[in-house]
Amino acid sequence: MKKIAVITGASSGIGREFVRTLSSHGQYDELWAIARDTARLEQLRAETPIPVVPISLDLSRPESVTTYASMLAEHKPDVSILINCSGYGKFESTQNISLEDNLGMIDLNCRALTAMTYVTLPYMSRGGEIIEIASVAAFQPIPYINVYGASKAYVLSFTRALSRELRPKGIHVMAVCPFWTK
């Protein structure tokens, strides 16, 4: 059974940095790098000693989670670590952000993160790790990023509760709450 790492949002930002540094964290047979940009995912192969499996999916689309679940069912890996980095935020007056963008933040930051965690859990065993990327915005309401902050508050609350649930199974769950990141 292959021991794998799964990183969403792997083509840029925090996700890409996790890809670049993951080999210093542990040993993995493969790294499943998930993001929309196929070309950027292909570039990751040269940036890590871990064999990268580029998986081009748009996690804001429910069918992408279904595709990922099918891959897990087919390969039956031991997912040693899941790092959910996919997400985005719009930072301006609420009235200037479209309903589509506000709902998109909720879909990607909350629904997709929850779905990816849920479908991955059956492939994790004692010693497994889940890292959910939240934000300092999760800790209090902040004008001009209210939907983003609320979505990250969801991630923080979900992660804290899941950590308690999975502790007896030996699966460690952690929320990372970075400050503003370029």
What this model shows, in words?
Strands 3-2-1-4-5-6 form a six-stranded parallel β-sheet, with helices on both faces. By secondary structure, the chain is an alpha/beta fold. The N and C termini lie far apart (37 Å). It has five helices and six strands. It has helices at residues 13-21, 38-43, 62-75, 99-120, 146-166; strands at 3-8, 30-35, 52-56, 78-84, 129-133, 172-176. 40% of the residues lie in helices and 19% in strands. The protein is globular and about 50 Å long.
What tags apply to this protein structure?
182 residues, alpha/beta, 5 helices
Report the sheet with the most strands, covering strand number, pairing sense and barrel closure: 6 strands, parallel
What is the rounded distance between the termini? 37 Å
What are the low-pLDDT stretches, counting only 5+ consecutive residues below 50?
A: none
In percent, how much strand structure appears in the residues? 15-25%
* Overall pLDDT confidence: 95
Class by SSE composition:
alpha/beta
Anisotropy-based shape: globular
Overall helicity: 25-40%
Number of helices: 5
Strand order of the largest sheet: 3-2-1-4-5-6
What topology emerges from the helices and strands here?
Layout: E1 3-8, H1 13-21, E2 30-35, H2 38-43, E3 52-56, H3 62-75, E4 78-84, H4 99-120, E5 129-133, H5 146-166, E6 172-176
Parallel strand pairs: 1-2, 1-4, 2-3, 4-5, 5-6
Helix pairs in contact: 3-4, 4-5
